[in-house]
Amino acid sequence: MTTSFAQEGDIVLLLGKDKREFMFRLRTGAELHTHRGVIRHDAIIGHRWGEQVKTHIGYPYLLLQPSLDKLIRGIRRNTQIVYPKEIGYILVKMNIAPGVRVIEAGTGSGGLTLALARMVGPEGRVYTYEARPAMQALARRNLERLGLADNVVFHLRDIAEGFEEREVDALFLDVREPWHYLEAVHAALRSGGFFGALLPTTNQVSELLAALEQAPFGFVEVEELLLRAYKPVPQRLRPEDRMVAHTGYLVFARSLFVPTPIADHADDAPRSTNDEDV
Ligand SMILES: C[S@@+](CC[C@H](N)C(=O)[O-])C[C@H]1O[C@@H](n2cnc3c(N)ncnc32)[C@H](O)[C@@H]1O
Question: Which long-range contacts (CB under 8 A, 24 or more apart) does 156-159 make?
Answer without folding.
Answer: 156/130, 156/131, 157/129, 157/130, 157/131, 158/131, 159/105, 159/106, 159/129, 159/131, 159/184
